[in-house]
Amino acid sequence: MDVESVRKKLIDLADEDYRAFHSKLVPGTENILGVRVPELRKLARKLVKEDWREYFEAAPNMYYEEDMLRGFMVGYGRMNLEERLERIRQFLPSIHNWAVCDCFCSTLKFTEKHREAVWEFLKTCFTSDKTYDLRFASVMALDYYVLPEYTPFVFQYFDHMKHSDYYVQMAVAWAVSVFYVHLPDITENYILENQLDDFTHNKAIQKICESYRVDKEKKARLRSLKRK
Q: InterPro entries attached here (predicted)?
């Protein structure tokens, strides 16, 4: 497969109405063609049956969708654990927005079978100073590590992530809300004594209170824990 033929396919799949809609969700990203994510996933699954590595290494990231494709290839391609972790490492600098980050995370289902090895990899992301390394680690945590044995360590990393970028703060808030739904006791204790900045702390409580899976009594108690 070559870059130009794949790009032509992406252009053929583009929908102008969807491009206009999706562009509003990813502000600051100007290179969107307008291909829906299910179509991108379908194309990626087809491409990984060919020599996808050549495309992965050659694609110049002219379009947002090309970044998405490369990320999906890392999740769908056949490779051993060591190569997959290395491909993740290679791909991380290509993440420039929340959508590519979060879709990439949701595609890395192999994590469920290699949770400890991936956790070791994520430690370096949690201690990075790069916005999308931190968001990647946070979203991976909420996707694959909402488990009692990992939760205290995830929360420790959250407390040490002193980063003022909105997309990092919102990822942490989202993650805390997911942990609360599944592990309410340990997460409420964390909310009581966390070292998060006030914005992230309050957003986490807000997102928990938006969940239909949390009862009114708990929501009222949590609202009282918001910081002024």
A: ARM-type_fold, DNA_alkylation
Instruction: Classify residue 92 by its DSSP letter.
Output: G
Prediction pTM value: 0.95
Name the burial class of residue 152, with classes exposed (0-12), middle (13-18) and buried (19+) by CB atoms within 10 angstroms of its CB: exposed
Q: At residue 145, what are phi and psi to the nearest 5 degrees?
A: -125, 25
The residue to which tokens 């942490």 are assigned: 172
- 3-class DSSP assignment, residue 3: helix
Backbone angles phi, psi at 143, to 5 degrees: -80, -35
Structural domains of the chain ordered from first start: 1-94 (no CATH), 108-228 (1.25.10.90)
Q: Tens digits of per-residue pLDDT, 25-70? A: 999 999 999 999 999 999 999 999 998 999 999 877 789 999 999 9
Q: Which of 84, 74, 161, 75 is nearest to 125 (CA)?
A: 161
pLDDT over 90 at 2, yes or no: no
